[in-house]
Each structure stands twice: as C-alpha cells, then as structure tokens.
Amino acid sequence: MRHSIFLTLAATVALAGCEPAGDAEVERALKDLNVVDETNLNDIFLTVGDPNEAVSYFSKANANDPGRIDLQRGLAKSLVRAKRNADAVVAWQQVVGHEEAENVDRVDLADAQIRANKWDDAAATLNTIPPTYETFKRYSLEAVIADSKQQWEKADSFYETAVGLTTRPANTYNNWGYSKLTRGEYREAERLLLDSIRYDPTSFSAKNNLVQARGARRQYTLPVVPMTQVERAELLHNLALTAIKQNDVTTGKSLLAEAVETHPRFFPEASRALDALENNVNN
Question: What is the Cα–Cα distance from 42 to 225, expressed in whole angstroms?
Fold first, then answer.
C-alpha cells in the first residue's frame, strides 16, 4: 500500500509541467502520508500493544509534538490500560483542559477517577456534562457512583438506562445484580445475574455472584448455566462456604466433598477446607 502511495505522489510531481512543485508542497504531501502511518501505529499501541510500551510511545510522541489532543488521549488511555490510575487521572485532566476536548473525554476522566478511588471527583466530573449527552459508558459510571452512595433508586434508574444503550450489557447486568445482592434483594439479583450470563456465558464473576445470591436464600444447588468442570468445582466450594457461614455445616461438608470429586487435581482448596471441618468435628 505504501509503495503505491509514493508512486502516485511521484507521478503527480512529474506531471506538474515544466514548473516543479515547491519543496513546501512536497513536504506537505509527505507529512500527510506520515500522519496516515502514525495513525495506524497509534491504533496498534492502543489495542494490541503492551500497555507499558504504549505509555512510553505516547509519552515520547507528546514530548516531540506537544499540544496534540490525539496524542494526549493516547497517553491517557495507555496509562489506564497499564493500571497506572493516578497518572491516568492527571493525563485525562490535561486532555479535558484542551480546547478541543469533548464530552467523551470528560466521561473517560470520570472513569479514571473511579479507578483511582476518587469517587467524589468522578461525580463532580460527570456533573459538568450536559444531561443531553447520553451514552452507555456515562450511565454505567453514574450507576456505580450512585451505588457507592447507596442511592438505590438512582442506581437502578442509571443501570436500566445503561443496558438500553448497548448490545453488550453483560458486565452492567453483573454489576446491577451484585448491587442487588449487597442490598439483600436476592431474587432480583438472581434475575439480573442470569441476564448477565445469557449475554456472556463465560463470565465466572456473574456465575459466582449468582451462586452467592442463591446460597443466601439457602438454595444450595448449582444453577443450570454453562460452566466448565473447574468452574463447577470452584462454585461448589464457594457455595459450601456460604452454607457453612449460615451454620448449614452438614450441607457445606457435602458440597465440599462434591467439589473435591468434581475436580480434585485443579481444586485442592475444597479438600483442605473439608479436612479442616473434619478435624474440627473430631476435636
């Protein structure tokens, strides 16, 4: 692709007539080509590149060409991917302060602030965004912030709006279900967590939360959802611990034994817990 572009450029210069193209014109054309290549490289670092290498790349790019908001965004996103949350907040604040900043940048700043455990700052950032700016990410963040403040009605409203704005609501349903679980609304939690698994059958977090919601109601059987043998063993173990905490010790021992039988090679924790229970009874 690059060779054909350069050939086209050369032909354009050759056909320009007796008066050759000025150096500035050629330089401008070459600069445009470099921007195309650079954009592709930026995308690679933002998606498949190592996060720390991306941070290094965008840090150098910003130093060499300061003031470009696309490079500032690249650095901020890379810092988030590298889990350098405090640095990411600073980087996103620089982006938001840019004259070309948009509402999506403010949402990303709020996201970074939540990751850095700056919940009040995140709420303040979202409050600067007009209510007419409605996106899945904005309402997802609004929901978890309302959750953190135990503002349940607001949280439910934000979660409901968020899932209506995406075709991939699995994680939001999981968060919403976990919220219901922490409130003691176990049946509603089960419904939402089943929705999460329906959209993402691979989510172990949703499966575990579902088991916890069932266990809280003393429903000590695994739900009928897709799971691997390793997941089955882990879920049986966690369900057993829930039963034991609720003084249903006999049921807990039975579940631990089933966990050991399900996958003894990859799940020794259940065996150790069962041994500890047996020793406690014998003593």
Answer: 40
